[in-house]
Structure formats: structure tokens, C-alpha cells
TrEMBL record:
Gene Ontology biological process terms from the UniProt entry: peptide catabolic process; proteolysis
UniProt binding sites for Zn(2+) 2: D139, E174, H378
Tree of life domain: Bacteria
Record's protein name: Peptidase T
Cellular component GO terms, alphabetical: cytosol
Cofactor comment text: Binds 2 Zn(2+) ions per subunit.
Active-site residue list: D80, E173 (proton acceptor)
Known role: Cleaves the N-terminal amino acid of tripeptides.
GO molecular function annotation: metallopeptidase activity; tripeptide aminopeptidase activity; zinc ion binding
Record bears the keyword Cytoplasm: yes
Cofactors: Zn(2+)
Keywords noted in UniProt: Aminopeptidase, Cytoplasm, Hydrolase, Metal-binding, Metalloprotease, Protease, Zinc
Reactions listed under catalytic activity: Release of the N-terminal residue from a tripeptide
Amino acid sequence: MELKDRFLKYVSFDTQSDESSETFPSTAKQRVLLDYLAEEMKALGLTEVTVDKYGYAMGTIPATPGCEKAPVIGFIAHVDTAPDMSGADVKPHVIENYDGKDIRLNAGVTMKVADFPELSFFKGHTLIHTDGTTLLGADDKAGVAEIMTAAEYLLAHPELRHGKIRIGFTPDEEIGRGVDFFDVKAFGADFAYTMDGGFEGELEYENFNAASAKIEIQGRNVHPGYAKDKMINAIQVACELNALLPAWERPEHTEGYDGFYHCIALNGTVDQAQISYIVRDHDSARFEARKNYMQECVDLLVRKYGEGVLTLTLKDSYYNMRKMVEPHPQVIDKAIEAMKMAGVEPLVKPIRGGTDGARLSFMGLPCPNIFTGGMNFHGRYEYCSLTTMHKAMQVILNLAQLWTK
């Protein structure tokens, strides 16, 4: 199957994950695609194809004769789409030879180059975008399609020498649970790559240290006409807490290695409110300082309003994979070489987010992240370059061969 057709097939599956769910995968519809991928792997001729009770789909491309002793490498992608926007009934549009101008998604929504200047890079590419009513699902079905199409190519071209290759597809990456039950030993790879990056050439082996912060606020509701010195408005307390956090350290004002506090939810009434954040920083010392500052802000308001008014729950999500990948420089060196062989200029940069690879690296599987060609993830302006997707697939093919040398 052609890469484009495979990608369009995968985005037709609604695989949105659900942070409020207590099941794994968090949504049954993810399992539908994972089971489909397992059957497709069998049909292509992969061996050792499994789907375990948690939904992880794995398969093997056997080593070509004479390459059995080469390191076992893996390629991993996630099937779920972000809860931020619907991924149901996706209606992708294909633009051949993109002219570099604004893209009309629908009668009321236009993706403007002035708002998304990266579009100018893709002039002449084949682009796939949404109709403006859903996200596209390139995060990370572009990676899934690239891995599967590369697998099909390797199996059809036995003259390409490579060692044993393991393929893995995971659920629930978008809600931070993607490798909660991933069996690294069963996967059996020495090194792996997540195909989950964006812009052409991205190679990432540094990511944020990440934590979640949830503050429960118990107010005191009194008739507003008689509220003086009695009422505690939980909504106002939440706003006061948010105002204590530096405004210049929000995502919309940061880049590169800058960390941030990001308010992701605020709900409540006068009587009760909840406010939630994600806390991020690449540097571990600054990461700890951010969490400490969040605690200090809550403690300050507790002193002001009294015990029991604010309750903070802080939970670490993942850590910067750099210290786990750097002891294995060949993982990065070969990725850089594979990109250059594909005519791609490597862009080694920190991830301003996280991938399954971050946690996998701490689980003993060094796992940097490689571009897929998707852009503007998680919303109506998501698109991907099929031209870049072909280059990402070529990088996979190059890596497969480079690890025999």
C-alpha cells in the first residue's frame, strides 16, 4: 500500500484517548486500530506479531541472512489522538504542489501563512490538512504509516541488509500513559526510535521534565448581600493563585529550553473550584524549583484563607531522556547519518513536550525521537507534508541498514 493511502486509512479511525478514563487503553476505540495493525503486520509477513492484554501491538521484521548478530533496533509510534479536539469523522484534504499561500479549511476557517510562517517551507510539497472541524491525526498516525510502509518495503526487498527490527504501537501517549505497561523485555530491542516528531529533520533526545499540578479549592458560599468577612469565593482564590505564577513563564511566551507553567483547566463555583497545571522544564534543578514555587504559592494562600481551603496534588509525569541517551552516542550518530543519506538536514533540538521514548529511555531502552512531517498537532490547523513523510520513511530504511555496519 502506498504511504498516502495507508495514512488516510489510519486517520479514518477515531482513536482519541481519555484522561478521565480508568481503563487501559483509556478508550476501546484505540484497540480497534491496534488490532487492525496487528492483522496488517501478519498480512505483510512480519513475525512474532502480538497484541497483549494492554493493547500494545508488536511485530518483527526478521534479520536478513548474515545480519543476525546486528543490534536489534525498534521503531515505535502511538495510535491515540489528543483529547484537545475530536478525531472522529476526519475529512482530510490533499493539496498537490502546494503554492505557499493561505489554505482555506472551510467557509469560516483559513490557515494563514502570517499565523503559521512554517508553511512557506512546504511550498511545492504535497500537503494533507483538515477540513477545520477536527484534528487530522498526523500525531502520530503519520509515524504509524511511515513505520508500516517501511516494513512493507523491507520485506519486499530482501536485498537490503538489516538486523532484526522490532515494531511497536502504543495507546494513550497523549495522556501520558503510553508506556505504563510496555514490556521492554518482550519488545527485545537494544535501541529504538519513536517516530513522533514534527518538522522535517527534527531529531530530539532531550525533552521536558514534566509534572502535573491539581489544586482543589474549598470555598465558603454565603449570600452575597451578607458576605463581608465570611465568604471565600473559590473561583477568586483560583484566579489569585494563577496570578502568583509568572505571566512570562506561560507557553505562549516561551521557546527553546524555556520552562513554563501552563493552566490547562479551571472549573468551579463559589463553593468549590479546581485548577490544573502542567509544569515543565528541561533542567532538573529548575524543574524542582518550579514545583517548589507552586507549593509555596499554595502555602501562601493557605496562610491567608486557612487550612483546608487549598489542597495541592503534584505528580511527576516523565523526565528528560538526555542522560539516558547520551551514554549511547551511536543512537544519535546513526540517526544523523540516516537523515543526511535521505537528503534531510538534521535539526537536533529539545522537545518542547514529551514522547513515549522519554519514559522508555528510563526503562532501559534508549529511544530518541525522529520527525514525521506533521505540524500544528492537536487542533483544527493540523497538517502534514506527504513529501516529508516519504523522507521520514527513507530515514527508517537507512537506519535499518546502518545498524548492520
